[in-house]
Amino acid sequence: MSLTRDVVPGTRRWRTGRRPPVPGGRQAWRRFLGHPPAVAGLVILIVVVLVAVAADWIAPYDPQAVSQALLEPPSGEHLLGTDTVGRDILSQIIHGGRVSLIVALVTGLGTLVIGSLVGAVAGFYGGRVDAVLMRIAEVFQVIPSFALALIIVAVLGANLAYICAALVMALWPQMARLVRGEVLRIMTTDMVAAARTVGHSNRRIIMSDVLPNALPPLIVQTTIDLGSAILLQAGLAFLGLGDPSNLSWGDILQQAQRDLSAWWMSVPAGVVIFLVVLAANFVGDGLNRALRPTSSHL
Amino acid sequence: MLRFTARRLLHAVPLLFGVVTLMFFLLQLAPGDPIQALIGDYPATPEYIAQVTEAYGLDQPLLVRYWEYLQQIFTLNLGESLAGRVPVADLIADRLGNTLILTVTAMTFAAIVGVAVGVWAGVSRSRTLDHLVTGVAVGSLSIPMFWLGQMLVLIFAIKLSVLPSQGMYSTRSTAEGLDRLPDLLTHLLLPALVLAMREIGVVARIVRTSVHDVLTLPYVETARAKGFSRATIIRRHVVRNSLLPAVTVIGYNFGFILAGSVLVETVFGWPGMGQLLYESIRNRDNAVTIGIVLLIAVAVVVVNLLTDLVYGLVDPRIRAGAGAGGRA
Amino acid sequence: MSTGLAVRDFSVALKTPAGVIRPVDEVSIEVRPSQRVALVGESGCGKSMTLRGILRFIPPSVLDGVSGEASYDGVDLAQLDDRRLRDYRGRRIAMVFQDALARLNPTMTVGAQVEEVLATRDRRARETQVTALFRSVGLDNSRAFRRRYPHELSGGMRQRVLIAIALAGDPELLVADEPTTALDVTVQAQILDTITDVVRERGMALLVVTHDLGVVSETCEFVYVMYAGQIVESGLVDAVFDDPGHPYTQGLLACVLDVDEPVEQRVRTIPGVVPPPGSVTTGCRFRSRCPAAHDRCAADPPVVRLDGDRTARCWLPSDTAGEAS
Ligand SMILES: Nc1ncnc2c1ncn2[C@@H]1O[C@H](COP(=O)(O)OP(=O)(O)O)[C@@H](O)[C@H]1O
Ligand code: SF4
Ligand SMILES: [Mg+2]
Fold first, then answer.
1. C314 CB under 6 A from ligand 2?
2. Is C236 helix (H, G, I), strand (E, B) or coil?
3. Dihedral angle sign, alpha carbons of residues C65, C69, C72, C73
């Protein structure tokens, strides 16, 4: 079947040296903008970040302040109503965004660092090192991420630091596999062979040839991890494993479970989580199209 | 096939070992007193603490404790719940059946609907349908599962009052035996749907892509050269081969469904393992929590193993140990 | 009365990222009932595209369009709707492709893949027919063998299965596109023998693309030589091979010093490569490689009739013979 194979363009390869790892920055940006869901996702994420940063000024009430208005439906006073102890839901959502974003960012970064390290070492050294590291990754991967995060937080305690640590533990194996695959792919290119013949050190090859070239898929995966982290954290909070001093969207939904007919507790918080995660996934897909134009998409 | 099975088994055993080891070290990592970690915040008498210390050999060196722990786990001794002083294994066994009813229903549901939608989208040349399937799939991956459950309860149980929202059976029902089935099914519908939602999206997308790919393979052209109609070709040569990656995805995602059931059971008051887990977390009854997560992990390893074996059965290439492509 | 395959001024246009190309340019080919015809030429000359275009095996995503005529028994294949086209495929015209492993369904037994072509509903009759088909293509016809999967067979056996599939519809014309490429040299010869044997026995017509000019001279009656999308010479095999009229044919034949030598031992090749479609717009497409190229070759050469059915697209013979059209 020569029919389609002949027309597939050659695999792309970036040159050695100090070239920007992200190919044709401006062109990639244009490709990203040409994909409406990605743009919408980006706008949503920007808005959420701004709201979270400005929470202290925007929120009409102190999210923790109780009042006499118990479980009241939305009104002029409380735009999204109040919870069982009279706290303002809108203010809780606005402040809760901070928790979700902090957890997402810390988890995303931690996953990126640990996953890249393990993956790069496994891919670069291969052999036994690779085999052992990948078996360890498999042990972590075989426990569903939610169950793994849950058990870690349950045992260590529910505060933001442990929650992030637990999420990183749940998410790193996938990143490690991805990086390992990329490293293996890049290692077979002429570029690395050239660097080897010139006598560059392993470290230098990893840092200046391998990692920069593996970057596009890593960026995409990190974006997707941000969304996963928010979902996982919400699930933990829903089961009562949220940080009690930092109420998040998931905590609101846990409250809501006590009386689901108080729809104003469950609907807005859930919609917000859904939108943010969807936005992260759309941005991830947009980045994928922009940075890796020849790979397959959603 | 025998060698294939043996190879997969050999792969699964160290994995199980690894999972148990991970759990053990997790317990060691707990802040403060390991006994406290084990029994959580539950108020315990000094005698009981002494008893636990003795039972778990907490005065022993790490490696000895590890060895003891392994022995216990492999004799299915998961410790005791502190809340009720009941063996954890018994507690779990009581609930396991209900969880399996829920998860297996959800998985079957996801497989059937996901495959049907995926094949439909894959063979249709409509771009709109393609986009729709992709959209729903991405949506179902982004939606918090438990919240979807809450919304369905809100709509179907609270607003419309057409379906029950809590439990497995109506409390007023007096039916016995098989007569309870209709009641069970109405209770099962929403939680199973919620649990299946994500997998439906995932499976549909995989099958769609796979159908697309298979349609371009040379042997489909051979079928065309035989003079077969598009419908015949799809039925005989495309669907079956496109299902291969779906088998893997459905099997490998059983873990997601099992873990997700924790959330869904909590939303719907389904009296399964998930609800037990929820209670154990609230009571900081760590022996139960760990026991359940361990069981989930073991179930995943076992189901993955079964998946590989099923895959071997449906794909003759794997069975022969050729190990040739085809696996996503 | 059957008149066979008639292709006249047939062109295929493909969509590529770089624009529309015409890998098949006004090709005319005729295969009369029971006639054995060869289509030869180097890789990339457009032989496969010609066959695919005629039998409508080019995916719509790639095909820009076809023009000219490709008819079977007077019916223009290009005009047929899907249903009527299916009546021709398999039952009247069967195809054997190269790369048999990819051409067979990996999850179906080879027996089932042959059997599904048979029209009869009677299981017994089908089984008898499959057994006979396996035997006629030189395969083990035991039940155990028929229950094997493609990956369990050797390349040669797979190719034989493909031939059995093609024969199962009892076609009038067998079209084979390099049916032996990628096989061992010794196996290649056996497979080609099998094809020509069954074709002769059944009185079928054959249109075969092959690089094995030895087989062409032994088994085919008529030959078309294709270069860069055009037929550059055609005629009865004996006449063409004895006294090739076109410098390209001469080059091809010179590569086979001794037709009985296996491929590996053919030492010479024509220097240079086939120009990709669209790269030569006027003049003889062979002129960059032609040892006899001269001034006139910058203009399109005429198709000249040498003798009888023989034609060549070249300026040289036109000095001694009249133009064909
Ligand atoms: N899918 C395709 N898209 C564009 N051009 C193609 C495609 N497939 C083949 N071609 C081109 O068409 C020409 C003829 O190819 P083909 O018919 O396969 O040659 P042959 O069978 O004689 O070796 C070649 O130049 C090839 O590059
Ligand atoms: S036309 Fe000229 S270049 Fe072409 S084959 Fe004849 S002699 Fe050679
Ligand atoms: Mg070809």
1. yes
2. strand
3. positive
Dist CA C196 CA B293 (whole Å)? 67
| Alpha-carbon gap, residue A218 to A145, rounded angstroms | 19
Query: What would the CATH number be for the domain defined by C35-48+98-318?
Result: 3.40.50.300
Q: What is the CATH number of the domain that holds B285?
A: 1.10.3720.10
At how many degrees (to 10) do helices B2-29 and A145-156 cross? 20
Predicted TM-score (pTM) of this structure:
0.80
Let me know: does A46 contact A279? Beta carbons within 8 Å. Answer: no
Helices (H), chain C: 47-55, 82-88, 100-103, 110-115, 123-136, 143-146, 155-168, 185-202, 213-219, 237-242, 247-255, 315-318
In a domain, B23, yes or no: no
- pLDDT tens for residues C176-215? 999 888 788 888 888 888 998 999 999 999 999 988 888 8
Distances (CA, A) of A88 to A26, A59, A76, B88: 44, 9, 12, 41
- Strands C75-76 and C311-313, by their bridges, are unpaired
Q: Inter-chain contact A142–B22, Cβ cutoff 8 Å?
A: no
Q: For ligand 3, a single-atom ion, which residues have Cβ within 5 Å?
A: C 48
Are A247 and A92 a contacting pair, CB within 8 Å? Answer: yes
Atom of ligand 1 nearest to the CA of A4: 1
C280 lines ligand 2 (CB under 6 A): no
Q: Where are the domains of chain C?
A: 35-48+98-318
Sequence-distant (6+) residues with CB within 8 A of C249 are C225, C232, C233, C240, C312
Asked if A240 and A226 touch (Cβ cutoff 8 Å), the reply is no
**Integer Cα distance of C248 and C109 in angstroms:** 44
Domain residues for B299? 88-323
Interface of C with B in 208-237 (CB under 8 A): none
Instruction: Please tell me the predicted confidence (pLDDT) of residue C61.
Output: 87
**Would you say residue B103 lies in a domain?**
yes
User: Which of C84, C91, C103, C207 should be substituted to probe chain B, the one whose Cβ sees the most B Cβ atoms within 10 Å?
Assistant: C103
A126-180: pLDDT as tens digits? 889 999 999 999 999 988 999 999 989 988 888 899 999 999 999 999 999 999 9
User: Which of C286, C318, C319 has most ligand 2 atoms within 8 Å of CB, for mutation?
Assistant: C286
* Cα–Cα distance list, A202 to A84, A122, A179 (Å): 60, 13, 16
Q: Are A213 and A186 in contact (CB under 8 A)?
A: yes
Q: How many angstroms from the chain centroid is the CA of residue A37?
A: 17
Cα(A224)–Cα(A285) distance, rounded to whole angstroms? Answer: 9
Question: Tokens at residue B174, please?
Answer: 């007096």
* Residue B27, domain member (yes or no): no
ipTM of model over 0.90: no
Select from A2, A3, A7 the Cβ nearest to the Cβ of C17: A7
Number of domains present in the structure of chain B: 1
Q: Kindly give the interhelix angle for A89-125 and A211-238, rounded to the nearest 10 degrees.
A: 140
Q: What is the pLDDT of residues A28-43, one digit of tens each?
A: 888 888 888 889 999 9
DSSP characters over A193-227: HHHHHHT--HHHIIIIIIHHHHHHHHHHHHHHHHH
Asked if A294 is an interface residue toward chain C (Cβ–Cβ < 8 A), one would say no
DSSP codes of every residue in C76-131: EGGG--HHHHHHHBTTTEEEE-S-HHHHS-TTS-HHHHHHTT-----HHHHHHHHH
| Cα distance between residue A171 and residue B97, in whole Å | 30
Please state, in angstroms and rounded to a whole number, the distance separating the CA atoms of residues C42 and A282. 49
B56 assigned to some structural domain? no
How many whole angstroms separate alpha carbon B40 and alpha carbon B58? 15
